[in-house]
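Module 6 notes. Inverse folding takes a fixed backbone as the condition and produces residue identities as the prediction. Think of it as a translation problem where the source language is geometry and the target language is the twenty amino acids. Below is one complete input and output pair. Work through it position by position during the lab.
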């Protein structure tokens, strides 16, 4: 049987890794797919650079539309990144009856509803395993392996740059800015690191995971997103002292009131496996009703780890080329006419515990004023630490852990605390999640 011909859009880190894996493991991949998989055309912006990188045997051009329209190509692999021209090219590929594989999390998070509807109308597949958590097969796990379960919640370290920064701050007592500069030197962070450190990249991925887990439409604009740039090494130290670690998590939870979608720094008990995921590694913890809690761990980026997911998608597509479209696994795990309209809760309606750090004047009665305000708001304190004053300043740090409370209640209490003439500046708040199986 003739090999399936693939058109590749983009030959960057992941594109080169994909070609390498397809060549090196060609025999094994053919045995799994039932047919060979051949990259027959590549579109890149800089053709000379692509050829000089050792890919001169490929048919390389700068005309992506030509690849999309090529009648001999059955599958288009989009590895360009960004929203345009990626969105237009993917929709054109679908319109020409081609299956699509993509690693583009922003494209799926923002335009996936449109893309999947177009694919369903044309009877083609759009596969996107590499869009979330690199080489970890998390999408297949949720969409297929957990199909018997009602998923209750998930929490993920789904941005390696942020996790590297938090790990270095804890292990070496370094400041955020210092570690970010190193991450940029090492290539973990972009020159403009906003998407990584402010949680936007993680929010793209959480949007996809939540849709797969709960059967809701993709709703990136409803994700509460908070970054890690305000986290200090003092916060990291105090969290450790209290038995917790700070991780930048994407959290999705389903309740009778609706769906929570949030990305923010989170205190997690040190004993949890996810609290011990270090460096640039990714991990997703899922709580399902029948199976219970499961943790999926591995590299979230890199040429060959991400290529592993891209090629796995190619194998899936090739296996189903002769399958009736109605019998394929749905793009978002649930049948398209069975998606839920559960509301996404605003962050003010989310209930969680909190870590609070404030600077207060070192004199009797101040702590009593703070605790009284919290009590008036029905906020219970689980633990409290008051540190010694630093030389030359009249203020002392006070650190508290609270029990679970609605965010709106905490907002009101913190506004009153910050208005006291005995406290200085804003109160630092970091949400706390136990992430247990209960």
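Target side of the pair, the amino acids:
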């Amino acid at each position: 049987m003739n090999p399936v011909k693939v058109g590749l859009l983009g030959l960057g880190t992941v594109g080169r890794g994909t070609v390498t894996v397809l060549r090196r493991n060609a025999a094994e991949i053919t045995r799994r797919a039932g047919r060979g998989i051949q990259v027959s055309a590549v579109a890149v912006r800089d053709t000379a650079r692509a050829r000089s990188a050792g890919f001169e045997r490929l048919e390389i051009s700068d005309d992506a539309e030509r690849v999309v329209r090529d009648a001999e190509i059955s599958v288009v692999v989009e590895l360009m990144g960004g929203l345009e021209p990626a969105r237009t090219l993917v929709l054109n590929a679908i319109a020409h009856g081609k299956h699509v594989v993509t690693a583009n999390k922003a494209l799926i998070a923002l335009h996936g509803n449109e893309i999947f509807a177009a694919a369903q109308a044309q009877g083609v597949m759009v596969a996107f395993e590499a869009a979330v958590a690199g080489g970890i097969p998390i999408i297949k796990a949720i969409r297929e392996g957990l199909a018997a379960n009602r998923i209750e919640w998930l929490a993920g370290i789904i941005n390696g740059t942020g996790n590297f920064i938090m790990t270095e701050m804890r292990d070496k007592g370094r400041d955020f800015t210092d570690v970010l500069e190193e991450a940029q030197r090492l290539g973990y962070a972009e020159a403009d690191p906003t998407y990584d450190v402010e949680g936007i990249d993680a929010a793209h991925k959480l949007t996809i995971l939540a849709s797969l887990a709960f059967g809701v439409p993709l709703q990136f604009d409803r994700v509460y997103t908070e970054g890690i740039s305000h986290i200090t090494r003092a916060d990291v130290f105090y969290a450790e002292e209290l038995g917790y670690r700070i991780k930048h998590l994407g959290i999705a939870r389903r309740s009778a009131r609706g769906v929570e979608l949030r990305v923010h720094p989170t205190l997690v008990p040190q004993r949890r496996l996810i609290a011990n995921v270090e460096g640039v590694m990714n991990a997703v913890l899922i709580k399902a009703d029948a199976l219970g809690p499961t943790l999926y761990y591995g590299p979230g980026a890199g040429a060959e780890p991400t290529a592993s997911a891209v090629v796995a998608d190619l194998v899936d597509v090739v296996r189903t080329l002769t399958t009736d479209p109605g019998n394929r696994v749905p793009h978002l795990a649930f049948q398209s006419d069975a998606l839920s309209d559960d509301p996404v809760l605003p962050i003010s309606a989310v209930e969680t515990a909190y870590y609070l750090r404030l600077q207060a004047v070192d004199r009797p009665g101040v702590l009593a004023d703070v605790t009284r305000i919290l009590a008036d708001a029905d906020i219970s304190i689980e633990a409290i630490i008051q540190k010694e004053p630093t030389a030359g300043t009249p203020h002392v740090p006070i650190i508290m852990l609270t029990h679970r409370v609605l965010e709106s209640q905490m907002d009101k209490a913190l506004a009153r605390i910050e208005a006291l003439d005995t406290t200085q500046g804003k109160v630092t708040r970091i949400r706390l999640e136990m992430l247990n199986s209960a």
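Reference fact for the lab report: The chain has 15 helices and 17 strands.
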